Amino acid sequence: MKKTTALAAVLAVTLMLGACTQTSKPGPSTEPTETTISSEETTTTEETTAATTGETTSETTTTGVKELHEPNLFGNPDLDNPVSDWFYRSKDVESSWIDSLMAFYGLYDWNMTSPIVAGSELTAEFEVNPEGYGDTIKLYVFDHNDDYAWNTKDAYTSFEATFCRTVNADQYYGTGYLPADMETGVYTLVVTRPDGTVECMYDFDVAADFDEAEAMPVDKPVIYLYPEETTDVDVKIDFEGQLECTYPKYDPENGWHVVADPDGRIHNTNDGRDYDYLFWEGTTYNSDLKSFNNAICVRGCDTEDFLEEYLEAAGLNSSEIDDFISFWLPMMEKNEYNLISFPTEEYENIAKLNVSPAPDTVIRVYMVFAGLDHEVEIASENQLVMPSGVTRDGFTVVEWGGSPVALAK
Q: Peptide bond before 357: cis, by omega within 30 degrees of 0?
C-alpha cells in the first residue's frame, strides 16, 4: 500500500465473531463503547471510559435513521491522491497521523476485497507517534455517499480508540460492533481527531449475512459476436461484482468497441488485434448464483456426453461447444459425480450484457457445478429441464461461463 507521510502509524482492524460458539450472528446490544442506530426509532447509548481515571460517562439520544439529518461531519477526501482505491485522507489536515491502514481480519479469513458480516465485532488498533494527540480518537461507520458528508446522529456505530502504551509501540485501541441488521452495501469508516476534524476515510463492504460474505468466482464468460454483415459493435457489462480480468482490455466507462464479421472474427479497434471472442471474469458476493433449484446429478465419466447434449440443445455451435467443454471438463470428469445447474435468470440479473446495435438473438449459458463423492437424489420438480426450440436468427450474440462451488458438508 502506498505511504504518503513519514510519521510512523499503522491502523490494524480485526473482525471476529463476538462468541465463536454461537450459531447465530452476535448482536451489539450488550457491548460497551458503542453507538448503534437501527431503521426504527431507537435509543442509542455511548459509553466512554477514560484511559487514566477509569471513569465512565454515558450519553443517550433518540433518533430514527431513515430520514437523514443535515451533515455536520465533512470528510473532504483527497480523491485525486488516494492512498488506495478505498482509503482517502482528508484535505483538512496538514500532516497525517495515520500512515496506512493495514488490514481487516476475521470471519472467512476476511480481507480487504471481501465484505464484513453484519453483527461482527470491530476492533481498531492504531500504532502511532503520539506527539500532538489527545486522549482519544473516534471512529464512525456511515452509509457511503459520494459527498463524504454525514451527520454523527446517522452513524450505524461509533466508538473511541484510547491511548495505551505497550512494550513495542504506543497505540490507540478501541472496540465496537456493527449492528446485526445492516444491509448488504458499501459503507464508510471515518476516523476523527479529538477536535472533530476528519483524519481519513475508508470505504468497505458489508454483507447482511454469512452467505453473502463468501466471494464467488464468475469464471471465463466469453462473448461471441455474429452480425449478418461487418458491423461496428459496442459491448458493455453491467456486473454486480468486481471485474478481475478482461481480454482484450475492457474500458470501465465505454466497454469494448469492436468491428465484428459474420464469421465471428472480432477486430478490437483499441489495439488493432483480432479475437475469437471477448473474455472477462470476476467475483461477486451475490449468492443467488449458487442455485441448484433446477439441477441434475451426473457421473464424472458421463459429464462430457451430458454437456455436449445440453449445449447443443441450448443453441451453441460446434466450435463454442468445444471451447466450453475443453475449459470445464478437466475440472469435472475427475469427480465421482457432478451436481450441475444452469441458473440463467440469476446470472442475467447480476451480469447484464448491453450490446449495440441490439442483436436479434442472444444465447447466454451459465453453468454452476459442485463435485460430489456420491450421487444425490433430486426431487422431480427440481430436476433440470433440457432447453428446446433455440434458433439463431439475424445478428447473434453467444456467451458462456460458469462457477465451481463447494456445498456444505
A: yes
Place of cell 488485434: 273
Alpha carbon distance 136, 158 (integer Å): 13
HSE-up of residue 76 (Cα within 13 Å, Cβ side) = 12
Q: Which residue, among 280, 164, 142, 137, has the nearest Cα to 222 in the 3D structure?
A: 280
CA angle 203, 204, 206 (to 5 degrees): 145
Give the angle 218-334-279 at the CA atoms, nearest 5°. 25
According to DSSP, residue 107 is labeled G
Whether the CB-CB separation of 10 and 99 falls below 8 Å is answered with: yes
- The pTM of the full predicted model, rounded to 2 decimals, is 0.56
How far CA 290 is from CA of 209, 340, 342, 358, 377, in Å, comes to 15, 11, 10, 29, 18
Question: Is 345 buried (19+), middle (13-18) or exposed (0-12) by CB count in 10 A?
Answer: exposed
DSSP-derived secondary structure letter, 249: P
Pairwise CA distance, residues 140 & 143, whole Å: 10
CA–CA gap between residue 46 and residue 34 (Å, rounded): 5
DSSP of 322-385: HHHHHHHHHHHTTSSEEEEE--HHHHHHHEEEEEESPPSEEEEEEEEEEEESS-----GGGBPP
CA dihedral 326, 328, 332, 333 (to 10 degrees): -10
Exposed/middle/buried for 329, CB within 10 Å: 0-12, 13-18, 19+?
Answer: middle
pLDDT tens by residue, 213-271: 677 889 999 999 999 999 999 999 999 888 989 999 999 999 999 999 999 999 999 99
Query: Which cell numbers hold the place of 230?
Result: 461487418
Strands (E), 39-154: 42-49, 56-63, 73-74, 87-89, 100-105, 116-117, 121-127, 136-143, 149-150
Among the listed residues 343, 406, 326, the one whose alpha carbon sits nearest the alpha carbon of residue 373? 406
Q: Does residue 74 contact residue 198 with C-beta atoms inside 8 Å? A: yes
Predicted confidence at residue 163, as pLDDT, reads: 77
399, with CB counted inside 10 A (0-12, 13-18, 19+), is buried
Say which amino acid occupies 32.
P
**Whether 155 contacts 63, CB under 8 Å:** no
pLDDT tens for each residue of 154-186:
999 999 888 777 666 667 777 788 898 999 888
Distance, in Å, from the CA atom of 225 to the CA atom of 261, rounded to the nearest integer, reads 8
